[in-house]
Amino acid sequence: MAGKLTTQGTGILLVTANVGSLFEDPENLQKTWLREFEQTVHSHKPHFIAVHCQEVGGKNCETSMAHVDSFIKELLSSDGLKEYSRARVYLDENYESKELFTVSTSTKNNIKYIAKKFKKVVGKETCSDTLESIPMLEKQKFPQDYFPECKWSRKGFIRTRWALADCAFDLVNIHLFHDASNLVALEKSPSVYSGTRQKALGYVLDWITDQRFEKLPYFVFGDFNFRLDTKQVIESLCSTATMQTVQAADTNEVDKLIFRESDNDRKVVLELEKKLFKYANQDVFRENNGTSVSHAIILFILLHLNLSDPDAYPTTGKQYMPTRCPAWCDRILMSATARDLVLKPENEERSIVYDNIGPNVCMGDHKPVFLSFRIAAGAGKPNANKHKCCVVQ
Fold first, then answer.
1. 171: domain range?
2. N or C: more exposed end of the chain, with fewer CB within 10 A?
């Protein structure tokens, strides 16, 4: 938190970032990531920043936690955050517990859930190890029966509650299930993975809107793994192509699909494997932010805010990685009551910005996504008498 509140309201910056690949090459990727993040903070100069990270530590958490600690320290001590005197980091490092471990981290006066009251944020503190014992947040891992045919995933969500000026609101860090196989995703529309994500998202929304606590505006941001509908996309992109099936020698199961043009020397249009999506013309996903295939997109939209919707995965700089169909995984969603706090004043052209961080450099396989906006002074006054709020000073 930095700066004093003004008549223009409180500047807010929400960031979501899947940082798993940063720990595969910490020497290079982390420096670039931190530099681009600092530039975003400097550009928007928010009073309050919330960073939701997923896959902290990467795929091998046991061997990467030293890099995680270094990353957090560098983030908090970076030039971009030197004006911020208060911070809370909630970091799940309990990787030995399969029942409890998630892959989410939240960096951000927040609520003490058990006592149902707020505690003023003073200084900078990192809370790690067993988050279940920390009364300032709620953490849930998705039930095992949500994915009975595969290994119990680390995915889940963390909720924190904040009071800022006249407003109180919830921030939810979420990580939903990915498409484990392009070949399985192709089998039907919508895919089995889409159904699992819908079920998990419903689980989160039911949890954060139940009757245990007062209902507040909420922002849900993280890695939703929202994807293009693989079956519809391929039918659209390869409508005139012929398909060749390649079977595994030992099992005779389909191992690869090759789509070729009917003429033009039978040029390969698309190669598809479990973890390969190699399409000949990536520009179709870039032009007008992929609107040429938008009929196949199943996603949420920031209604009536007149914002573009940046795709963020899988990338290496300006190029898509040939592993998955380009996707809108990393997103910032909000409740209707939160949207009322964000609405754009007519006289401020850039009061709301929704975009990627580091659009022209490699930030890992996910581009961080941010939402910058201002909460107008007095916007939360209906709640002002109900909460003992901290004040940004």
1. 10-227+328-384
2. C
